[in-house]
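Long-time lurker, finally posting.

We've been working with SPW repeat-containing integral membrane domain-containing protein (Borborobacter arsenicus) and I want a structural starting point before designing mutants. I don't trust myself to interpret raw outputs, so I'm hoping someone here can both generate the structure tokens and explain anything notable. Sequence follows.
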Amino acid sequence: MATRIMGSLRLVEHRRWQDIVVMILGAAILVSPMFGDTTSNTMMVVTIALAGAAILILGGVEQLFLRRWEEFLAFLCGAWVMLAPFVLEYGGPLRMWHVGLGAAVVILAVLELWQDNDRNLAS
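Top reply, 14 upvotes:
Generated this for you. Predicted structure of SPW repeat-containing integral membrane domain-containing protein:
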């Protein structure tokens, strides 16, 4: 029954829209430090910008080559974006944005990994 429901929602196959959404989330993460008071936290700006750029690039690469390592790296980058506010100790609106955007990347990466669990995509 669950497979039938998921199949009707087209969540059992890796879809192109998922990679496009990951790219959009990566771009949003990349530019997000520009919308907050980041003058005192250079480490946050650098690490979030790198994570956002990595997520953006990984989403683009997944458009060309579907590999598990891309989804796993997107998962790690999303998890970092989600945890960065607590590790680097910053708050405000950026904390909420980074937790939310990071969680969205993590959820999409987990969905994509689940969709591809029966495929041999390790290479």
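Before you design anything, note these points.
The chain has one domain: 23-115.
Residues 23-115 form one domain.
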